[in-house]
Design goal:
Elements: H1 15-20, E1 28-34, E2 37-43, H2 62-84
């Protein structure tokens, strides 16, 4: 399937894929770059769903937290991708 990038960097996900993946207007997608490829994956919920689920004491390194989250998402996207083939 070939998609064209618009002047503002946008793409349109074809209706058949949106229907297959149950992607609705307003849904969030995670995009990850892996070995020069872009991976899109629907996201269920958001970070605020996790609020209060982990006890935290003292100051936090939010840049490290973001990097850990990026790595976690990338691993899960790759696991999902590997099982789909």
């Amino acid at each position: 399937m070939l998609l064209k990038v618009g002047p503002r960097g946008q793409i349109t996900i074809p209706k058949s894929l949106r229907k297959t993946l149950n992607i609705e207007p307003g849904d969030s997608l995670a995009i990850t770059q892996i070995n020069g490829n872009l991976m899109l994956q629907p996201v269920q919920g958001d970070i605020f769903d996790l609020l209060g689920s982990i006890p935290v004491d003292g100051p936090q390194d939010f840049e490290q937290i973001r990097e850990t989250a990026r790595q976690y998402v990338a691993r899960n996207v790759m696991q999902d991708f590997d099982t789909d083939e």
